[in-house]
Amino acid sequence: MTIKELQDNIIEEFSLFDDWMDKYNLLIDLGKELPVINPKFKVKDFLIEGCQSKVWLHPEYDGKLITFTADSDAIITRGIVALLIKVLSNRTPDEIIATDLYFIDKIGLRQNLSPTRSNGLLSMVRQMKLYAIAFNAKNK
Amino acid sequence: MKDIAEIRADFPILKRKVYNKPLVYFDNGATTQKPQCVIDAVDEVYESYNGNIHRGVHFLSDMSSEAYEDAREKVMSFINTEKREEVVFTSGTTGSINGIAFSFGERYIKKGDEIILSRLEHHANIVPWQMMCERKGAVLRVIPINDKGEIILEEYYNLLSKKTRLVSVTHASNALGTVLPIKEIIDAAHSVNVPVLIDGAQGIQHGIVDVKTMDCDFYVFSGHKIYGPAGIGVLYGKEKWLSELPPFQGGGDMVDKVTFEKTTYNELPFKFEAGTMNYPAAIGLASALNYVLSIGRENIASREQELLSYATGRLSAIEGLKIYGTSDRKISTISFHLKDIHQYDAGMILDKMGIAVRTGTHCAQPVMDRYGIDGTVRASLCFYNTKEEIDILSDGIEKVKSMFA
């Protein structure tokens, strides 16, 4: 699936629910599906600053694609990371850098998260893009 | 005393809904809501007599200046001092403590001197002292707490020494709700001629604060936590201290060079009020204090203790819920943790039910470290809250538990 198709799928999935509680239940379920991160990466080097809960994000680059694994101590946050990974993992650095993550606004995540939380979400996105930029730079 | 329906009607925001649910506002420790009279008082400044204070000779400036000085008098009577010189307006508790930490450090602190704080302090009563200590080569000493979240007085007595220059402690813990034994702390410090600053950010709104009886050397608080506007705070200081301390803004040496109508800089309390003060907020604060007096501080205290006891009972009954801060002497603040549920997850779901609580470390990381936790959910109640709202919170927590089970 393309990144666009994946984002549109997420938007459709969330549009099934009007009630915020249902949307959060969906996030909780998504959090449970998050690929397990190797415990050795749950260290300060892979911790993302700017979140009220802890988020660890680890990139693996095979020369072509970047694969992300992550974890959080809060389940809702884990759900949000899971969404990001669904869209951005197993992509080339160029794809990741170029992606406009419009689904975040469309499913109402940005507006309904507190500013600090919103920053946490933005920090995650920024970190994923920074890894992509760094891997890209190594190729040049 | 007004009944609860009348009280709630005084606060327009309490009528609103969030996410189509009635607002349950349990974040009063962070900021309190404002009664209509406070909103009106601030509006009135801008609508009918706005002019910069102490500056102009014109009608509006005079009127604003008078209202601002009346506000100071209101604060004076509220905390029980007759001296105008002893009440300085600041931007808030943080501004007050930063100011005193700077000035006190400049005036009195030498290398090796010690400042005593407690483990219960908000970051606002830690960091300014740390900054000063770094500058002056002084040392912070910390009064430990027991499992109930109370300071250990014996340890405090042991910390007092020839090196102690100042004790700065909170009136009540913002994170746990514990009320500190202020009188004992002050008496012991005074017995060795050490002054005491009380951080009243969580104290002033919950009962009667009488600086004369308390005999503290400094008492600081924020307007927005006692139903007044944001951006205004109070620094009470005994005249003997304030007259000796250098200004913390503008700089002592610069004062003489100022050629505007600023000779007042040299006099208390104006020497600590550099620049245009937030006079509309000060005027709003006076209105808030009047409102508090109209309800009655004893009434507020007893109503809040009743809510605290009801909430403690309801929440304690929830399986897997642990309350942090179990002293017999508490303000109406309850900090808790749900077994296996991150405080952020709990807070997000409670929010969607219209319940405003705070989650995290509450700007008091040393307190969290003491218990080996990385945060709690905090419900901070005040007199306009109700038992029905506590029931809503209790049901909400059960719902949170079922969602994350």
Largest sheet of chain B: 7 strands, mixed
- Write down the Rg of chain B: 22 Å
User: In the CATH classification, which architecture of chain A applies?
Assistant: Alpha-Beta Complex
Tally of individual domains of chain B: 2
**CATH architecture annotation name of the largest domain in chain B:** 3-Layer(aba) Sandwich
How many helical elements of chain A?
Answer: 7
Q: Using DSSP, what is the number of strands of chain B?
A: 15
**CA-based gyration radius of chain A:** 14 Å
The dominant shape of chain A is globular
Distance between the termini of chain A: 28 Å
Describe this structure in words.
The complex is a heterodimer of chains A (140) and B (405). With 140 residues, chain A is mostly helical. Chain A has helices at 3-15, 20-33, 75-88, 93-98, 103-106, 109-112, 115-139; strands at 55-61, 66-72. Chain A has a two-stranded antiparallel sheet with strand order 1-2. In chain A, a hairpin with a 4-residue loop joins strand 1 (55-61) and strand 2 (66-72). Chain A is globular and about 45 Å long. Chain A starts with a helix and ends with a helix. In chain B, strand 7, helix 7 and strand 8 (196-199) form a beta-alpha-beta unit. Chain B is 41% helix and 15% strand. Chain B has helices spanning 4-9, 36-49, 59-79, 93-108, 127-136, 153-159, 182-191, 211-214, 239-244, 279-295, 297-316, 343-352, 365-371, 387-404, and strands at residues 17-18, 21-22, 24-25, 87-90, 114-118, 139-143, 164-170, 196-199, 218-222, 233-237, 321-324, 333-338, 355-356, 358-360, 376-380. The longest helix of chain B is centred in the first third of the chain and has 21 residues, at 59-79. Chain B has 405 residues and is α/β, with parallel strands linked by helices. The chains are: A mainly alpha (140), B alpha/beta (405). Chain A binds chain B through residues 20-21, 24-25, 28, 52-54, 73-77, 117, and chain B through 19, 342, 344-345, 348-349, 352-353, 359-360, 374, 403-404.
